[in-house]
Amino acid sequence: MPKVDPRFHLERTNNIKNMAYAKRLDSISRDWMREAGKYNYTYNFDWLGVPIIQFPNDIVALQELVMSYEPDIIIETGIARGGSVILSASLLALLDLRESLLAKTAFKQKRKVIGIDIDIREHTHLAIQNEPLAPYIELVEGSSISKKVISYVKKISKNFSRPLILLDSSHVRGHVLAELEGFHGMVPVGGFILVYDTSIEWDDNAMWQDREWGPGNSPRTAILEFLKSHPNFNVRKDFSDKLKVSVCPEGLIQRVS
């Protein structure tokens, strides 16, 4: 990765540290997210022409994470309309391209995305099949917490050493906790799991009255439960401190030992 001017890096680091305590900015950001949610704001964006259903801030943040960590496989649960796995594939393809250009060798696909969903719709299959990056993507239809699916994913991943786990399927605490328990063993020291929709924990109960999940029963509560028995993982709070407008505040956890 290119070197960052140390003075600029220090200034940015200090900005993020200060933002961690910016309570009014937190409040304004969450108010904005709630208001934007009334208009299904996240449905307004595409990645390579396919709906991605994410905040632009989170898309940029994932790009930063992938470019800095350089995973060789991304395992993603919950793929909706396909834009998210295409984003992951495009970022891994970019890593492959950069490596080939730096080495002055022919381009070679080295990396892979596994997308898991209990119900992959025909339009999602078609969107991915018609995407030139499709060779990067393998879709697995089934529950992301089933022993069969987890075992299959682990088998596929044996030839890869730097997995990145993205959890964005059911947001019920028990489901997310089961995903964390199922996949965390694949993460090497220094590796990451990114849990989406932790923002639910800071929402009003009324926002989720027609859903199984809500404040107190969310991905955020799953992370807190997981960390009690897995002290070798820490929350990377700086990841969301700089975003503020994000569906995954305090949702990035890193294995530290």
Describe it:
- The protein has about 260 residues and is an alpha/beta fold.
- The chain has a single domain (about 5-255), classed as 3-Layer(aba) Sandwich (Rossmann fold), CATH 3.40.50.
- The protein is about 40% helix and about 15% strand.
- It has nine helices and nine strands.
- The chain has a seven-stranded mixed sheet, with helices on both faces. Strands 1-2 form a two-stranded antiparallel sheet.
- Strand 3 (about 75), helix 4 and strand 4 (about 110-115) form a beta-alpha-beta unit.
- Helix 3 runs parallel beside helix 4 and helix 7 packs across helix 8 (about 220-230).
- The protein is globular.
- The two termini are about 25 Å apart.
- The mean pLDDT is about 95.
Q: Characteristics of this structure?
A:
9 helices; 257 residues; two-stranded antiparallel ribbon; single chain; Rossmann fold; alpha/beta
Brief overview, please?
The protein is 42% helix and 14% strand.
Number of DSSP helices?
9
User: What is the CATH C-level name?
Assistant: Alpha Beta
Q: Percentage of helical residues?
A: 40-55%
**Overall average residue pLDDT:** 95
Major sheet: arrangement of strands: 5-4-3-6-7-9-8
Name the CATH homologous superfamily.
Answer: Vaccinia Virus protein VP39
Question: Which CATH architecture would you pick?
Answer: 3-Layer(aba) Sandwich
Report the strand count.
Answer: 9
Structural class: alpha/beta
Query: Low-confidence parts, pLDDT < 50 over ≥5 residues?
Result: none
Principal-axis shape equals: globular
The ordered H/E elements are: HHEEHEHEHEHEHEHEHE
> What is the multimeric organization of the chains shown?
single chain
The CA-CA distance between the termini, in Å, is: 24 Å
Range of strand content: 5-15%
In the CATH scheme, what's the topology name? Rossmann fold
| Main beta sheet strand tally, sense and closure | 7 strands, mixed
